[in-house]
Design brief:
Largest sheet: 7 strands, mixed
Oligomer: single chain
Helix content: 40-55%
Distance between the termini: 12 Å
Order of helices and strands: EHEHEEHHEHEE
Number of helices: 5
Structural class: alpha/beta
Shape: globular
Strand order of the largest sheet: 3-2-4-5-1-6-7
Length: 178
């Protein structure tokens, strides 16, 4: 079962997704993987990563760092496709692909990442995807930021279509949309 969890920043998405993935793996007796997509760029990022690692300590996750090229995980010999994956987050993955530190802005990254997310979901069949909801802000953005927002919306729509369950989170609530 693939599950898509979306919501605002810092409202419990990751913890809820961890619980879902852990329970799914326990029910199936399957390997449990945490696909970490953040590529740290500063001390704040490194502190956040340490906090996330500490929060999952003892849960049984094997951490797979994959900041770009998500589907490369499907080819790794140390990864069991029949395991359960928690992919956190779509937002960071898209950012890494669209704004590579060693390259130029890639305005076409959204379509590629959306296709990779669909391929990963179909290739595993048991992934919990986490994404930040950033669409309701009514401000006007520059063209690059607006392209990122639209690309993330494409990725999220793709996951909403391919996943068996879709969950929206808010401060203190989880709403099952599908």
């Amino acid at each position: 079962m693939n599950i898509f969890v979306s919501g605002g920043c810092k409202n419990g998405k990751s913890l809820h997704a961890q619980e879902l993935a852990r329970d799914m793996a326990a029910d199936r007796g399957a390997a449990l993987y945490y696909v970490a997509t953040m590529i740290p760029t500063d001390q704040e990022d490194r502190t956040r990563i340490r906090r996330h690692l500490a929060a999952r300590d003892g849960w049984g996750f094997a951490t797979l760092e994959q900041g770009t090229d998500l589907c490369a995980l499907l080819e790794r010999p140390d990864v069991d496709r029949n395991g359960v994956f928690l992919m956190d987050s779509v937002t960071a993955l898209l950012s890494n692909e669209m704004f590579p530190p060693e390259g130029e802005y890639d305005p076409d990254a959204g379509a590629r990442v959306a296709a990779d997310l669909e391929r990963f979901a179909r290739g595993t069949g048991s992934t919990v995807f986490v994404s930040d909801y950033i669409y309701s802000d009514a401000r006007v953005f520059d063209s690059v930021t607006e392209n990122y927002r639209r690309a993330l919306a494409l990725c999220d729509r793709t996951l909403a279509e391919v996943c068996d369950r879709v969950i929206e989170t808010g401060f203190g609530f989880f709403k099952e949309l599908k």
